[in-house]
Amino acid sequence: MTRGIGWYVHHQGAGHLQRAHAVAAALPRPCTLIGTLAALDTPNIATSGLDVLDLPDDRPLGGSAFDGRDGEAERPEAFHYAPLNHPGVRARMTRIAEWVARTEPALIVVDVSVEIVLLARLLSVPTLVVRLAGTRTDRPHCEAFRSATRLLAPFPEALDGANVPDWVRAKTHYAGFLGAPAQKAGEAGDDIVVVFGRGGAGGDVADLAGAARAVPDRSWHVLGPVSGSGEVPENLHLHGWVDDVEARIARAALLVGGGGDGLVALAAGQGKRFLCLPEERAYGEQTEKAEALQRLGAAVVHPGWPSARAWPGLVQAGLALDPSVIAALHRPSAIPDCAATIEALVRQIGRA
């Protein structure tokens, strides 16, 4: 019997689900997507042929914001999130254990949760643990990395943090950017395209207006959430959420945005001159990636939103970049290569 694979997706949003869906669809064996999927954008799962194990929500009761901490006065040092008396957590872990007992999976890919990695280890199931960018040397991450059979980095090795321990690097397969491949659409124009994703604070009208006024000879097109109010100059266009992000980026002379994997992958996939404005994230996820981009000469980096007077110089520096440098970070075969690596790992550990 061909044993299947489970792919666990935590509450991180569409980007994590997108890479899970893309790689799982390329696997030569059955794959089950696992997680609280009803709350995520899952339009393609029903028609993908992939099985789904939808889990009860384990986030804090009462609807409070979820920052990955459980508020417990004491907690085992190997855990990040282990609240007591939470029925969703209890049902979630039970459902995963029942699925393991029923299907005997060959491997579980965990993207991402320390607790699920340790549960899988206790259930005697090998894991491939997705390791996000940044330096994650805290006790829970290290215990999860030790428990894993292998680690998977969804970014190129060149963008890894300078302070990542050698033993973690040695255990990591650097898959490159994973997810839907970028689609090129037409020739680049003169526009500046600013992208705000779902994970950050979004843009501010006054800040964007100041930037557009500082560089009046360029049209500014802003994609994603923007808040605030104020007068908008004629060269600033606020589009909100759009379905053709890739096509709009393809027409940009300069791409501006944060240091998340999704946007950096699009910049690399389309060979775009990139002004990276990394946002504060846990473990330096965006700042360390941005520092690596800057070291390589793949992007101009400015921490946070620049002042109006800084924009002319930043735009000039961004337009002077050699786009072939960031384009070299893109590997068109990343998704099938990752699927082949997972299949090879399953056969290596003898669970074919």
Question: How many DSSP helices?
Answer: 12
Q: Strand content of the residues, in percent? A: 15-25%
Sketch the major β-sheet.
7 strands, parallel
Shape: globular
Number of strands: 15
Task: Tell me the distance between the termini.
Answer: 8 Å
Q: Detail the poorly predicted runs.
A: none
Radius of gyration: 21 Å
Mean pLDDT: 91
Helix content: 25-40%
Strand order, largest beta sheet = 3-2-1-4-5-6-7
Structure description:
It is a single chain. The chain has 352 residues and is α/β, with parallel strands linked by helices. The strands form 3 sheets. It has a 7-stranded parallel beta sheet with strand order 3-2-1-4-5-6-7, with helices on both faces. It has a 6-stranded parallel beta sheet with strand order 12-10-8-13-14-15, with helices on both faces. Strands 9-11 form a two-stranded parallel sheet. Helix 1 packs across helix 12 and helix 3 (114-122) runs parallel beside helix 4 (139-147). The chain contains 12 helices and 15 strands. Helix 4 links the parallel strand 5 (127-130) and strand 6 (150-153). The mean pLDDT is 91. The termini are close together.
